[in-house]
TrEMBL record:
It comes from Marinicella sediminis. This is Dps family protein. PROSITE patterns: DPS_1, DPS_2. Gene3D superfamilies: 1.20.1260.10. PANTHER family: DNA PROTECTION DURING STARVATION PROTEIN, GENERAL STRESS PROTEIN 20U. It holds the Pfam family Ferritin.
Length: 155
């Protein structure tokens, strides 16, 4: 069935591609943050355990919102580890780093998402899609705030 929502096919394709990357980035960060929540140790355990839980809970909600926006634009959302691995530049966590390195890894991942979201937000295609633009702005706000908090923890 054709889609006629006032966004041409080329722009919808560009937006869906960017949102698919955002979805893969977000899911990968969700998984990494949840892993760190389970495995953090050390003197900051209580505060980091709680911080990571707060962040992964919000990321889980964001994954759904991003995927549903892709569907609203008429495309299928990627939903496999294999698809996400091809779309994201965030490195999957295979070890259990110490708390400081967990924070550094999360900071780097948040900054990747901020850059990807900003890149899509600045594209000409997004000028035709206020809803996706608003979603990107909200995602950037979340990630910039969390990057700031993590930088503050790192000193």
């Amino acid at each position: 069935m054709s889609i006629n929502i006032g966004i041409n096919t080329e722009n919808r394709s560009t937006i869906v591609d960017g949102l698919s990357r955002l979805l893969a980035d977000t899911y990968t960060l969700y998984l990494k943050t949840h892993n760190y929540h389970w495995n953090v140790t050390g003197p900051q355990f209580t505060s980091l355990h709680a911080l990571f839980e707060q962040q992964y809970t919000e990321l889980a909600t964001a994954v759904d919102i991003i995927a549903e926006r892709i569907r609203a634009l008429g495309e299928f959302a990627p939903g496999s580890y294999q698809a996400f691995a091809k779309l994201t530049e965030i490195k999957e966590e295979t070890d259990v780093p110490n708390a400081e390195n967990m924070l550094k890894n999360l900071l780097e991942s948040h900054e990747v998402i901020i850059r990807h979201a900003r890149e899509l937000l600045q594209s000409e295609a997004i000028d035709t899609d206020e809803v996706s633009g608003d979603l990107l702005t909200q995602r950037m706000e979340f990630h910039e705030k969390n990057a700031w908090m993590i930088r503050s923890l790192l000193g």
